[in-house]
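Input.
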Amino acid sequence: MKESGKINLVGLTRQELAEHLAEIGKERYRADQIVRWLYLQRVTEIEQMSNLSRSCREHLLGFAEISQLELVREQVAEDGTRKYLFRLHDGHTIETVLIGDKSRLTLCLSTQVGCRMGCSFCLTGQSGFERDLKAFEIVDQVLQVAEIIDPGGLSRGAISNIVLMGMGEPLDNLEEVIKALEILKYDDGLQFSSRRITLSTCGLAPEIIELGQRMEVSLAISLNAADDALRSRLMPINRRCNLAELMAACRSYPYTKHRLVTFEYILFAGLNDSLDDARRLVKLIGSLPTKINLIPFNEHPELPFKKPEQKQITDFLKYLQDHNLTVMTRRSKGADISAACGQLREAVDGEVK
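Output.
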């Protein structure tokens, strides 16, 4: 996919489409028609929008296009998890993961090429940062995977849930992510409700507050430690936004009975998996309505961390449950194809960095 200098229609909000059409005196409802063509019908050419007038289509063709991500490779894990490597117009690549679980099919989207947060346990962060993704590059991951699993179908196919947990820190690319979320939620388009979208962040406290003011989605926090010293070692962002600031931002986030803040807590052997760590976690969370996902570390030869023994995991889980916290142990899928949490990276010439 080469950059042409034209605007990609995928990634324009309804309001932006209406403003472009107003330049030639076209009615606002034409923007609604374009939304349905792009996200419900999944058209790939402006000329396919048959209920737009010739003058309208010519106007669109003058400044816009519908360019697509290029699928480079698809990998399938033993557990059925699928990982897609997409090439962008500038040659960079991103990875997108499709995860099946009982009645759900969840798509894990990337929001940046690489990541600048530098978490010590994350291969994406270890690979460095290249650039932010544009809204159309985020949304097109959904359209491309929908077409792969449901060729010629309508809207999002069988994809039921979206998680922004792939490459990058979503809140470090806040404006483009919010645009993408708005588009994903159009009820005459891809039709993802707030309850079916989860944004995961390493803890940018001011941006968490802003997100809560501007967009309704579920929030997941990559926590991983309940004291500042250890969390700062694992996650450099904690030196900028410490646990007190992060918890204050979480308390301000608009949650409901069906949309609680989730804390993701990766368990590392001998580092954050003791009962003392569990006690600190209980104290930190306090009365905040939340649920906790315990994730035993996905071991990788390039990283020094180890997965705890099962007894450590069980004892940690039981302590949290005994203190009335909603908690579950989550097994990350797709580890055999490096599609599990923290394992996504850019590829160069078909090879992973």
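Residues 150 and 160 are 13 Å apart (CA to CA).
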